[in-house]
Amino acid sequence: EISCWGSDAHEQRLPEGQYHRMATGSHNVCGTTLDSDELVCAGADFSGQSSPPQGVAVDALDLSGERGCAIIDERSQVSCWGKKATEAPDFELSLLDVAVGEDFTCVLVEDGTLSCWGDLEVESEGPWVQVEAGEGHACALADDGLMQCWGFPGL
């Protein structure tokens, strides 16, 4: 069960039920239901950020501002929706994690590489084990504990 706190100005509460994955954006929240693995979003939808693709199995999920992305189809593709929902490149290996910035998306690939597209373009061999995104920057954690960031300002 998901509990939320803070302002509910955009009615960003998921329907009652059990969820096994969730992410929050600036004015919305999305989660995948435990029973049917359905992707459900609630909250502001002025850029389509609460209108995700339907009928897809979600393996990872992240939201930012007015957009969201999910790793789908048994970790083989990325699907994005909302503001500047650019088409993702094709990947030959499985995708492990997704991080969404304001106008870019990053994925962590099975071989430890990091790939970002949109307003922040990064191709970096790792081995990376985690990726996170802020509004205009992304950071990745290497398997040796070192972290590297890309983006603005001065990173």
Describe this structure in words.
Strands 7-8-9-10 form a four-stranded antiparallel beta sheet, with no helix packed on it. Strand 11 and strand 12 form a beta hairpin. By secondary structure, the chain is mainly beta. It is globular. 0% of the residues lie in helices and 47% in strands. 34% of the residues are buried.
Key attributes of the depicted protein:
single chain; 155 residues; 47% strand; four-stranded antiparallel beta sheet; 0% helix; three-stranded antiparallel beta sheet; mainly beta
Furnish the topology, listing elements before pairings.
Elements: E1 19-24, E2 28-33, E3 39-43, E4 58-64, E5 67-72, E6 77-82, E7 95-100, E8 104-109, E9 114-118, E10 122-124, E11 128-133, E12 137-142, E13 147-151
Antiparallel strand pairs: 1-2, 2-3, 4-5, 5-6, 7-8, 8-9, 9-10, 11-12, 12-13
What is shown here, in short?
This protein is mainly β and 155 residues long. It is built from no helices and 13 strands. A hairpin with a 3-residue loop joins strand 7 and strand 8 (104-109).
